[in-house]
Design goal:
5-stranded mixed sheet; 7 strands; about 5% strand
Length: about 475
């Protein structure tokens, strides 16, 4: 059989198989010989390289799935005992000696003993390799996260994204085509134009920026993104890695407190949120900083922990108004997206216990300020501290009036609904709900104004038959 195999190999090697299949990338192509007659067909001159077709079908979700599959995100991770089973199979294969061996029985016995000793060492090595595989598996999610965000960044800057109906204009295209508000903060001069606000729709920090803009009556265009993609959008808007980012003629503002202060300087003095008196202003800024640093992060982590148990429902609200491909990507890649949120916010086992304690402590602090009967935290006028506290408490009171729809208690799990009910019943929670009901409207209007956005509005519900 060995000689016959060699003859066959020689015959195949000596047989004329035709010219190289591809001479060069766009060169002539020689077809393979006919499988029956062995004759060579004529060469076919290829069509020169053509530009890619204008793609109207969105394949980007499939690319995200392929990225997740490449790193095993959607597959069962290999367990250490799987590695051991593979090595056990290898041991069995190595233990089989070829038939017809010329070795003597004594030599075969000596060889078998040597093989057994070698395999014993290999089995110890297999356990070590299994341990290394388990350690490597712990880093798989981070590697998949990095690869996914690289892919998302590529998709976000892809020119084809501009042809998607839900994302008609990218950030850079809007920068060159839109008119902007030009305001001199020192004089309060406002010219007719439009600002740009980059957000995560449900974010309470983004709601703080939306509320301040709409209260001031400033035109703006909101660009909504899901978690993860928001970092790319924020960087491209030159605002850092977090949202909200407000793009103005003078540059990008990447902090909700700074946005609030900028907007306040652009309105008439009598409508400003910060007091004129230096001492009163310092007090208001101190309250805002306290809520930003304590209530905001803890309330956000607390509600994320609650909503992770009902993520399908959460994503329906979370993705309100984002581009379609982002909605699909976060749904298909939810395990990676959840890991990203946990890592970014510092969510770990039991973190919600401490966060809830901080939330109630801040609520008690606000209730103490209101005990003297004052209508607002700063006295007789609605101010920056009232807006900041109400916006950041939205994570646990889920107000009916908000920049985007929020899930109400009747659709939440029992544990989350109980948390919301307790927050709403608290004096500070009731105060925040009152701020939304009374102040979350533009001046002179009876209904909240719907800002301009880059996405198509959600369809209206069908009337009852």
């Amino acid at each position: 059989m060995g000689r016959a195999g060699k003859r066959l190999e020689t015959a195949v090697r000596d047989r004329l198989m035709g010219e190289a299949p591809v001479l060069q990338w766009d060169g002539a192509v020689a077809l393979a010989p006919h499988h029956e007659r062995g004759d060579r067909l004529e060469q076919v001159e290829p069509v020169g390289r053509a530009d890619a077709l204008a793609v109207h079908v969105d394949h980007r979700t499939q690319r995200v799935q392929e990225c997740l599959a490449r790193f095993g995100v959607l597959e069962r991770p290999q367990r250490p005992r799987d590695c051991l089973q593979v090595d056990a199979g290898a041991d069995a294969a190595l233990a089989q000696a070829p038939a017809g061996s010329a070795q003597t029985g004594e030599q075969a016995r000596v060889d078998r003993e040597a093989e057994q000793q070698r395999h014993a060492g290999e089995r110890g090595g297999a356990q070590q390799r299994a341990d290394l595989a388990a350690e490597a598996a712990a880093g798989d999610e981070d590697e998949a996260l990095d690869a996914l965000w690289e892919l998302v960044e590529e998709l976000h800057r892809d020119a084809a994204a501009e042809r998607v109906p839900d994302d008609a204009r990218t950030l850079d295209a809007f920068w060159t085509s839109a008119s902007y508000l030009a305001a001199d903060p020192s004089k309060g001069v406002i010219l007719r134009s439009v600002l740009r606000l980059v957000t995560i729709p449900i974010s309470h920090y983004c709601e703080k920026a939306r509320w301040s803009l709409e209260r001031a009556g400033l035109e703006y265009r909101e660009e909504r993104h899901v978690q993860g993609v928001h970092r790319i959008a924020a960087r491209r808007a030159r605002g850092g890695a977090t949202v909200p980012v407000l793009v103005t003629p003078g540059g990008a503002i990447g902090d909700s407190a700074e946005i609030l202060a900028w907007v306040d300087r652009a309105v008439e003095p009598e409508r400003r949120l910060f007091p004129r008196q230096p001492d009163a202003r310092r007090d208001a800024e101190a309250l805002c900083a306290r809520f930003d640093g304590r209530l905001g992060p803890c309330a956000r982590r607390l509600i994320y922990v609650h909503m992770f148990t009902q993520h399908e429902m959460m994503l329906g609200f979370n993705n309100e108004g984002v581009p379609v491909w982002e909605d699909r990507a976060i749904r298909w890649g939810w395990p990676v997206a959840r890991r990203f949120v946990e890592r970014a916010l510092g969510i770990g086992p039991g973190v919600e216990v401490g966060d809830e304690a901080v939330v109630w402590r801040e609520f008690d602090f606000v209730a103490g300020l209101l005990e003297d009967g004052r209508p607002y935290l700063g006295g007789e006028r609605f101010g920056a501290a009232d807006l900041t506290f109400a916006a950041l408490s939205a994570a646990v009171i889920v107000p009916p009036v908000y920049g985007v729809p929020l899930p109400q208690p009747e659709v939440l799990s029992q544990a989350t609904a109980n948390l919301v009910a307790r927050a709403r019943e608290h004096p500070a929670g009731a105060f925040a709900l009152r701020m939304f009901a009374e102040q979350r409207r533009p001046a002179g209007g009876s209904e909240p104004r719907v800002p301009q956005r880059d996405v198509a509005p959600a369809p209206s519900p069908r009337p009852a038959a």
